[in-house]
Amino acid sequence: MSQFDLVANLQLLVSGLAIGSIYALVALGFVLIYNAVGVVNFAQGEFVMFPSYIAATFLLPAVTVFGTVVHWQLPVIAVYLLVIVLMVGFGLLFNRIAYYPLRDRGWLPVVISTIGVSIFLRNAAQLTWGSEPLVIPGLFNMDTFAIGPLHVRPQDLVIIVVTALLIAFQYLLFERTTLGKQMRATAQDRATARLIGVRVGRIVAITFVYSALLGTISGLLVAPLFTVTKEMGALIALKAFAASIVGGFGSIPGAIIGGLAIGVIETFGGFYISSAYTDAIAFVILIAVLLIKPSGLFGERVAEKA
Amino acid sequence: MTSRDPARLRGVLLLGIAIVAVALVPLVVHSDYILNLCGVAGIYAIAVMGLGILLGFTGQMSLAQAAFFGIGAYTSGWFTTTLGWSVWPAMALAVVLSALIGLAVGYPCLRLSGHYLALATIGFGIITQLVLINWKSVTNGSDGMTGIPPPQIGSFVFDTYGKYYYLVLVAVLVCAYIAWRIKTTRVGRALEAIRENEIAARACGIDATRYKIVAFVLAGAYAGLAGSLLAHDTKFLSPDSYSFDQSVVFLVMLVVGGSSSIGGAILGAVLLTFLPEVLRPLKTSYIMVYGAAVVVMVIFMPRGLAGLIEVARARFSRGAPPPGSSVSVVAAGATGAEPA
Amino acid sequence: MKLDRKNFLAATGAAATTAVVGFPAIVGAAAEPIRLGTVPCLTGSNALLGQQEHEGIALAVEEINARAGKVFDGRPFEVVEEDATNDNQSAVAALNKLLGENVVAVVCPVLSTQIQAMAPVMKTHEIPWMTGGTAVKNMQLGVPGAFRLRASDAITAAGMTNFAVKDKKAKKVAILHASDAFGTGGADQVVLDLQKLGMTPVANEQYPKDAKDYTAEILKIKQSGADAMLLYIQNPSDTTIILKQIRSLGLTIPLVGSPSLTNQTVMETAGKDANGAYGAVDFIVGFNSNVATHFLTAFYNKYHHLPDVGTGSGWVYDAVYMLADIYKKQKSTDPKQTIASLHTVKNWEGVLGTFTADSEGNMVHSVSIGQIEDGKLHLVKKVSG
Predict the structure, then answer these.
(1) CA dist., res. B275 & res. B288, Å (int)
(2) Does the distance separating the beta carbons of C207 and A275 come in below 8 Å?
(3) Residues of B whose CB is below 8 A from C100
């Protein structure tokens, strides 16, 4: 029994870390936007869903778009580049429509605006691509391979590795480049940043774009595992939001650790306690953490205005 | 406070006319479809008013309103179906229980604010829904609870949409009155002070802890009442109606209507109940339009519908107001009257 | 009158005018459309099912309206469709709206929760309600005029359980089900059926709504030493992911699923991970009658994709045709008369098989067990309830 236990636990760990990485990436997206403009983006899940659909349109041999079947299959690398380019545009558009008109109005109206966009996008996806779930191939399209008695899905490993690389990339971006420092300055104090010559409007737009790209990468990573449906972003976003909060809203390491923690907790909790109550377990632990540390594990970097 | 200011009297008169107009609707409109929607809109308005007290007045971000809605509904449902209670005591119990749970939730949340509070309430909401789904011996789980009886007084049974309309109307008026009394007295001002700046409020001697808890209790009670009313109207309950998404709907209704106004809560609920119905002819693109409409409304109506009406009223009161103008605006907003 | 040319022309002219003026009036009256109500869930998370229902109904109506006599006496069907969405409240509103529009019969959604939410309204209108939800309770709500055109969960669950135990010789049965009404209701039925065989499930796992990773549940089932797994899941997307994960975690025990396992979408998207799985089905391609063959061809010609016959497009097609046949026979659309006629349906041939009404209004009393191989279903056996 003990050998199986070890294997089972490792299996759970790998799955937990994989889904946790997705939560971490999406949580990062939340935190970046929050740091830059002080609002929670309820459409973050759609930043994951929409690029997945676009990718599917060009990765699959046949897709139904607006009721007609199209065959626009392109090579994988071309598709990934195309999606990235489109999502940059998407991020800019989102900034202009959902955030910019409301930038001086406090956080609640912006939250509502992003909710509206989220509803809009989910339905737009259904109108465009129909209700059938789409399946897109993973990066390597290999089957599960076995390491001893452990069954490993290549996609899980890809997710973990890519997430780690992204986090490293982001660290370098923020600490070593001018752009990164400008983004951090804007996040800390917009007025002062403006004073020292940072083009705040542009940095905010770039932040939205970067967040959209994080969502895109999450989508491309996770879509081969799940299927591409219009609801795929919604639950991920909720858990990611929870992760970013419990890590300390505004803290980047907090978001990452929070995301991984939630992924692992819910996987292990589902196995050892009860799969029906998986979500409840995760949230009970979250609430417990909050009650002990009301501003999250790593506290909040930007002081909340009293 | 008790000035015989003609503008005030005019305001009260207009409100009275509006209420009478709303009360006459079932005598004129016979469509089950419309009357049902009006009842549902009114029920949602009660829940949104509760959220308005907690979020609008006191600034506490709660995304758990749907959970209290569900607790009220299932309490009422269970006591009337399994235990055979009469509806009225069951409804009262639903309100009390939701209020108590509001207390139980509000107390630990005192130390939390902003996003942390939001998350804690989201968590509570999700846990509540899971309990509703899995506590099958009481709630019947996902299969749902059927056969919930309508309320009755003596031999008069509230079993048509028209009759239920009046029940809901009375409830809405009572709840609105209570909320108004809260808003315009010391309690309301204390809540507002807490919303604006809790530290400063405490410095002025306001017991923020007590008032925040009161706000939570009231929000719970209102939502509990609304849930109970819905249970006896639809006579069927299922846990998937009490989700995080539903809490989000209440939030959107509040903000679109005008978050610190009671009339706003009612208008928001009515508008966002009727809007998807009005958009039905658009077939499957209706949700898209709905989502876009929410974005547009929030951009162009900074203080919600209520704010818009105030602006209109202010413009009209420079000089004698055209008779019936504000009335028609308010009445139209209150009933959301659209032809079938 | 003298029958001279002038009079003759005048008379002919008068007759012709009367005919021209009168004819549309006569034809118009006879061609009064028959309003058929439908409430599929076209938006929301079950939009796929709603879409499938919409397509099936549209095809049936199109074919019937193209016949010479249309339904009867030249009267066509006119579909009045309202979106039930995903929300029970909206579904009830949709139904109320529909009922305000003079429909003579309604083809209901396939979701059992929506049917139960609509029941209080349905009870007050005595018209034919053609439903497809499979929860046993649906037919026990006291709705006059409710009929079910698919096999109920009682039959399906029994079919699945008995197949697993008797045919696949399973001694340790595990269950994996969704948390919605379909999943929990079905799982409860399976537990009852196992009890009748003197067994209890070694694992009964419920996955949370919207979950995307099933590692915990599948590992628990693996750990329980089960030698067969019964799946009660309705959402095609969830089913696909679960099948893939079962395979990727190396679980090779026989799988027997509820009707949605063999949903066309699932077979296409799960690809080889679905191979070898068994499912209880209302319908199997290849094992069918002329009606079914015609349906499949016509559907493909119109929509360019294969229909999902069991849960989506097939039963609604049958519902419309059944009503058309009854209206034609009785030359009237009177609801009460139609309900009485529906109760007397016996061995009516549809796409899904033969329909015979019982006292509760159930019309289908058997399911088939099929096995998936390379995106197609092969019949293994037929089970009667």
Answers:
(1) 12
(2) yes
(3) 31-33, 340
